[in-house]
Amino acid sequence: MLEIRNLSLRYGRHLALDDISVSIAQGETVVILGANGAGKSSLLKAVAGLVKPEGKSVIALEGNSILGTPPHRIPEAGIALVPEGRGVFGDLTVEENLTLGANPKRARATEVERHALIFELFPRLAERRNQMVRTMSGGEQQMVAIGRALMSNPKYLMLDEPSLGLAPIVVTELFSALRKVQQTGVGLLLVEQNVSISLSISDRGYLMEAGRIVGENTAEALKTDAAVQKAFLGGT
Ligand code: ATP
């Protein structure tokens, strides 16, 4: 279980996260829905150790606090982040980017198998394994970013707007790969603006507004929830 409890975060005087509680069980897929600026990226960054929450916040993995763990040690604990904007190394090849992801100790023993798994998930990457990443399409770069995160052998994979700026057909391809990732038992914490596709692969979801959680339900219920319809799905 990855548990976030009473998480608050300030940027100067601005309270970006206000007493957030979110949990994900091993193997579960959870989506955080919210408008721009709601604080979704900040939540993922806090879990990844990239920003420092307020004192009373709790972030725990399998019951052990990971709050205060430096960002480069978070993958070692079993949590990987695919950041918004992907964070891939453009001047390195696909293969080199993947290899960099295998740095945590927990990943080294299974590096060869994981390379094979990622090429199975994304056959396009196998074809282009020696290609420089900056010469690839946005969708392919997103596959590299997800592949690199998976190389760390995570228990939980956090994805910040993976569909952003991609053509619908590429988004469909990415999400069908994410379904296969789910089948390997990895828990997914997803931040998305593409509400319908993200609910289609999620077990549960949370609604975020101005730094607070304002709703939580099963994905099935959220698909027909009036507030979700109104805010995100063009309903009235
Ligand atoms: P988006 O989808 O636009 O990224 P979001 O829901 O992910 O939105 P955050 O990026 O987490 O939201 O931002 C939450 C709030 O905190 C916003 O008001 C934003 O302007 C502010 N904020 C984010 N990063 C910083 C920062 N480094 N310094 C100051 N304020 C910040």
From TrEMBL:
Keywords: Amino-acid transport, ATP-binding, Nucleotide-binding, Transport. It comes from the Bacteria. SUPFAM superfamilies: P-loop containing nucleoside triphosphate hydrolases. GO terms for molecular function: ATP binding; ATP hydrolysis activity; branched-chain amino acid transmembrane transporter activity. One of its GO terms (biological process) is L-amino acid transport. Gene3D superfamilies: P-loop containing nucleotide triphosphate hydrolases. Residues 2-235 form the ABC transporter domain. Belongs to the ABC transporter superfamily. This is Branched-chain amino acid transport ATP-binding protein LivF.
